[in-house]
Amino acid sequence: MIRLLCVLLAAVSLSQVSQAQTATPDSGIYIKLGDARTKKSMMAFPALQYFGSPGTASNYQATGAEIYNVINNDLAVSSYFQFIDSKAFLEDPSKVGMTPAPGNPAGFKFQSWSAIGADFLIRAGFSIAGGEVTLETYVYHVGKATLVAGKKYKGPVSSARRIAHTFANDVLKALTGTEGMFLSRMVVTSDKAGGQAREVYIMDWDSANSMQVSKHSSVAISPAWSPDGSKVAYTSYVKRVGSKFRNADMLLLDLKSGKRQLISYRQGINSGASFSPDGKTIFLTISQGTSPDIYKMSYDGALMGKVTNGPAGAMNVEPAVCPGDSNKVAFSSDRAGKPMIYTMDANGGNVKRLTFAGVFNSSPSWSPDCKKIAFAGQSDNNFDIFVMNADGSDMIRLSSAKKSNGKMSSNEDPSFSPDGRFVMYTSNRTGKNQVFISTVDGTEERRVTQDNHNYFKPKWSVNLD
User: Does 56 fall in a domain?
Assistant: First the structure.
């Protein structure tokens, strides 16, 4: 576990920022969401300074580069900033201090940064001692010549990426009022293990630190996080002892202990887990030899009731419980002829149809505040990702991309980030099913995985401490 020394540096730095500075770092919302979409803030982020001597730590350059690159990527992905090229800098950051003149006689000058149009300036440096890295950071508002935040972070060298993600989260919190999603992870199934198998993997949101957590040599589908990120439920086609056939059984994996529990193994489909935010129940799809319906189940596999009931022959699948309200459930159903998106109360009452267009609408996903729903919609021969208000209004398309052969790609299985600013999904535009993210308004899109494997049904976790 990283020991984060998030210590305000007011005693040192505030006296050096300006004589007009108050007794605490400048506070307030500097970037508003709507303004950021219109005009990005200009960010100056010079290379990290190293406070030790080159001989005191092996490979310190690689650690510094990793920290810098992670922070730079996080803040770029946030879509709030445009970075100023280091060639435009008017002073050499390596030759001036990280706090400003005149308080620090050897410090930097705010005028040097305002002259090149910087709105914000990050100065940071690091040291390595005893196998631990310490990152010292300052975030400045250039126009006001004030310190926004100053903190130190400390942990094992192996935690360098996590320290960088933590700082990036803190930057967004300081400037926008809401922390970023950079300490989150995704759970996804993939064919990375080789052959026809699909196994479950957990990785950082940016695809780093990938770890395989299932080894069934089978096909695993539809993974889902528990509300606190400590457990993962998923379905695998398991071959039971004494049987020649595989069944779609649901398992629950405790990530800390590694304990794996078979929680739903009724004959037929046991899939599509969605945890209620109170941490007490799991909604899932069960068929039991008939048309699939949605059930509610405890963590130990005991059924607590059938939530949907047909109509006769109809499929009711893919339950999604709102993260902020255990009583709101979205799902897909073909009860009106074509699969469409519906919502209902947790007891199955108050059913409302939200989508009416397209051929096939599936995979609903709630935003953290329950105000929006993302889903995959098929109009022609491909799927795209759409976002709408929770009542079905103001629908927008997030994805639209062609393959190399000119045909439209399919984009499927959306999942909201824990801050509600992004939607993650898979796309086959590269020839393989890769993971992409888009801002919730569709203005910016980025590829997350960068390999030649296939990924399916990614789910975004909460931020993990």
Answer: yes
